[in-house]
Amino acid sequence: MRRARSGVAAKPHGQKRPAASVSAASVPGASRLRRPTGQARGRGRTAGRQPSTKRRPRHSSPRAREAGPGEAPPPPELSLLPPPPPPTPATPTSSAATLDLGDQRERWETFQKRQRLTCEGAAKLLLDTFEYQGLVKHTGGCHCGAVRFEVWASADLHIFDCNCSICKKKQNRHFIVPASRFKLLKGAESMTTYTFNTHKAQHTFCKRCGVQSFYTPRSNPGGYGIAPHCLDEGTVRSVAIEEFNGSDWEKAMKEHKTIKNMSKE
Known about the structure:
Helices cover 23% and strands 19% of the residues. The chain contains eight helices and ten strands. A hairpin with a 6-residue loop joins β1 and β2.
């Protein structure tokens, strides 16, 4: 009789037995190593598509590199603009140190100290004395003191006494000087102006006290008419008065030979 085969098939000789399964609980940390199957598969599919963590360096503009920490870089359109040119150095103000005075330096500095003037003030005094030879500096103003001026003119004043409608009412006696010899020291905001008829004459007066210490005459729009009675004392040597027939203004201007030239340099 044939020997009956066992229910368990005989294993071939030399075949290794499969390793016994080890329970997850018997290996420490095994629960941390195991991942769900779906998660593992998902990671496998997306592993090749993960973006690189390295970024290309941006070429920032010079202005962006100059910005300190915490400062926002300028907009792109501004960063493309060329840098502004360097500021032009300020021109030094004239002084005795920058003037080429030569052998006159010591004399110049002594003159400044004696007169207690700045370099500009000393130069102005000498220029005025040279350009206005034979003239003196008069000062004056209105009654309340809001308006003050200075004017270079002769110590011997030639006064016009006009009898036009307005000059007659306000007794507008005046002498005429070029505009370059007149300087308003203060009170421009304290004055107002009245005009009439041709509106060429500018009758300026103080808004506070009402005194007209100077004005722009119709006969000499390029100069000023100065009221001699508004000058400070001490600079007027003599006064000569000439009547001017302003009531017939056109005829008087045509017949007069010198009045137009009194406002010229």
